Amino acid sequence: MWEKEININDIKEIRVKTTVYFGIGAITKISDISTQLKNMGIDKILIMTGKNSYKSTGAWDHVEKSLNANEIEYILYDKVTPNPNVVQVDEAAELGKKFGAKAVIGIGGGSPIDAAKGAAILLEYPDKNATELYEFNFTPEKAVPIIAINLTHGTGTEVDRFAVTTIEDKEYKPAIAYDCIYPLYAIDDPALMVSLPKNQTLYVSVDAINHVIEAATTTVSNPFDVLLAKETIRLVVKYLPKALENPNDLEARYYLLYASMIAGTSFDNGLLHFTHALEHPLSGVKPELTHGLGLGMLLPSIIKQIYVAKPNTLAAILSPMVEGLTGDPSEVDKASEGVRKWLHTVGLTEKLSDMGYVESDIEKLTKLVFETPGLSLLVSLAPVDGTEDVVRQIYTDSF
């Protein structure tokens, strides 16, 4: 039983912070949120998003209407890219400073919302920049209020205190985690996600899977993490094929979004380890790599490394994906190959070599895991000793 792998003498901190409006039509709640912001004295807002989806999904119509109705002025930064970088965060923050923004709304998937979190900090620290923030040159204790309007079902960033941004000139992709960047409000509306392309539907859902596998197996995980992991994986295994077959299946989108949200809560509590620590160098070197794809390529090799340390937990949470696991450490290959086979059934078949990486990249990637600010901390939370040899082996096995 997985319960035996929880140390009941450890005192755990369990976090559930953000107010989330969840369900079909939740975007209409932006009206209530805008009214609340105005009542808080917020009359100018910085909005951060990408190029198209904030409009094509219909989210923008509701946001613009509600801000105008409450006489809240806004300024729009729509240059956030997948795997956003510090230049974008600095540009947006500077725009917001000059405008006098008192809050930030992020509209999109993980990239715009994460970038919005960084800008929200910099609006409170006008003498700092995003590179200083992501190289941990200062520790922020405040940020302007953040509103997250989520357009994907994968990252969970709308309910957690994490943000990721790339420092491209160093090929670093660090993650920060501060209480001040919990969104005040979040909107999770599955109707905004029916136009999500098939490959993105797959990759963001794989992101959620990785969140809970890691969170349930770190050295600081708690029973809440395991509970959320079991339900997240059950829901993704059941509903991802349905969403891939019919993008307009709102029930499938609803439960994938719910899985993503509780997965965000899971790793907000249990944190992360190998998969995210090793993926960040992959997309730090190649910013065009989709985060969820990178995670999926690494996952089977990571299961192979960690199963021996957490066999009962992994057997319990992976059961919807891999039948017949008993929690015996000797079934490590069955678990690893079972995860690989499931990924193949939903369409993720790529290896690192397919994405242009070569084996000579392994040393560079391994070095980046331990050099990139914050990633060595994630590695230290793995249930097995996160040595350079282990990291190198995971990359090697993923080719």
Automatic annotation (TrEMBL):
CDD domains annotated for this entry?
Fe-ADH-like
Q: Which residues form the signal peptide?
A: none
The cross-references to InterPro entries, in alphabetical order and at most eight, read: ADH_Fe/GldA (IPR001670), ADH_Fe_C (IPR056798), AdhA-like (IPR045910), BDH-like (IPR044731)
> In its keyword annotation, does this UniProt entry include Oxidoreductase?
yes
**What domain of life is recorded for the organism?**
Bacteria
Q: The Alcohol dehydrogenase iron-type/glycerol dehydrogenase GldA domain covers which part of the protein?
A: 18-190
Query: Where would I find the Fe-containing alcohol dehydrogenase-like C-terminal domain in this sequence?
Result: 203-396
- What is any Pfam family matched here? ADH_Fe_C
Coiled-coil-forming residues are: none
UniProt keywords, alphabetically: Oxidoreductase
From the Swiss-Prot or TrEMBL record, give the protein name: Iron-containing alcohol dehydrogenase
